[in-house]
Amino acid sequence: MKMRNCVIVEVPLHITSIWLPRYTDDALTTGSMGAGVVIRPGVRLRVTPNSGSRPDVEHVNAVLGRFGVGFSVTYESPVSLGVGYGMSAALTLGTALGAAALLGKSMLEAAKLAHVIEVEFRTGLGDVIAEYFGGGIELRLRPGPPGIGIIDRIPYSHDVKIVTVDMARGSTPAMLRDLADRLNEVGPRYIDALIKEPTYEKFLELSTGFSRDIGFLTNELESRIRACARYADSYYVKKGVLVFLTRNDETEQLLECLSKLGLRGRVFQLSNVGVEVILYNDR
Ligand SMILES: Nc1ncnc2c1ncn2[C@@H]1O[C@H](COP(=O)(O)OP(=O)(O)OP(=O)(O)O)[C@@H](O)[C@H]1O
Ligand SMILES: CC(C)(CO)[C@@H](O)C(=O)[O-]
């Protein structure tokens, strides 16, 4: 078969709000239960079968190494690595899908490989499956990658918008280590409650509660943003990113209010679609 000469992969971002790590002795059954928002614009990768440039990210090299190829990978992203948008998973998944598409290999197997690499680096547990399937507001029912994990979706109104504020950078392996006991202590209660009542309203309430309970949403931060909360349905914090769920007609007021506090908001849509993988012959 003639090899195509370019693949464009679009991967939405994922900001988990509630999560409970589940580790086994196999990376394919390791993952997390929980919920989060899948948003776009996300990461757009271009993978070509020549040895051109490649981002300086160990995940990308690990994927190409497992496929035994030296493809070129370039990407554009609205956000940086390390803040909490599931960016490392998006790059890993996008590279794996792009390489597999060029080689005529299975997308599902490529997604499994991306999940395994995320688990091995301890940079993600539930991001790959969420980004692969989309769903807007997702609910992870069984840990693992696409094909093994199970993911459901929570319906939401057409006018919901996501506004995020980058507050800090942090290491995911350190976060998972530091929070391990607390997550095991509080996680099951939140996940059971959301599975029992998988609605938008419950997602809002539990996401804020979980962020407070694990110490991401501090009293100090809540008092700082209190004046702006009236322009949102709710808010939560994941690692270094503050997330608001708001509505079309309140988005501008929320952004203005945040900017008065010196906080720069970014606007995203919920992404019902997951990854998109398109082959091109001449680019
Ligand atoms: N400029 C950079 N800033 C942060 N991390 C970087 C950078 N360049 C490469 N990396 C690598 O990218 C990975 C970042 O993974 P991490 O999971 O912390 O980020 P994320 O996916 O954006 O956040 P999260 O998983 O919490 O959503 C690490 O392995 C890190 O070594
Ligand atoms: C571990 C994690 C919080 C890192 O982004 C995420 O992958 C998740 O929700 O499992």
UniProtKB/TrEMBL annotation:
Catalytic activity reported: (R)-pantoate + ATP = (R)-4-phosphopantoate + ADP + H(+)
GO biological process, one term: coenzyme A biosynthetic process
Gene3D superfamilies, per database record: 3.30.230.10
Uppermost EC category: transferase
UniProt keyword Amino-acid biosynthesis, yes or no: no
Alphabetic keyword roster: ATP-binding, Coenzyme A biosynthesis, Kinase, Membrane, Nucleotide-binding, Transferase, Transmembrane, Transmembrane helix
Transmembrane segment boundaries: 83-103
Matches recorded under SUPFAM superfamilies: Ribosomal protein S5 domain 2-like
Matches recorded under InterPro entries: GHMP_kinase_N_dom (IPR006204), PoK (IPR012043), Ribosomal_Su5_D2-typ_SF (IPR020568), Ribsml_uS5_D2-typ_fold_subgr (IPR014721)
Residue stretches in coiled coil: none
GO MF, any single term: ATP binding
Pathway(s) the chain acts in: Cofactor biosynthesis; coenzyme A biosynthesis
EC number: 2.7.1.169
Residue intervals of the GHMP kinase N-terminal domain: 63-135
Family: Belongs to the GHMP kinase family. PoK subfamily.
Entry function: Phosphorylates (R)-pantoate to form (R)-4-phosphopantoate in the CoA biosynthesis pathway.
HAMAP family with a match to the protein in the record: Pantoate_kinase (MF_02223)
Protein name (record): Pantoate kinase
Species of origin: Vulcanisaeta moutnovskia (strain 768-28)
Classification lineage: Archaea, Thermoproteota, Thermoprotei, Thermoproteales, Thermoproteaceae
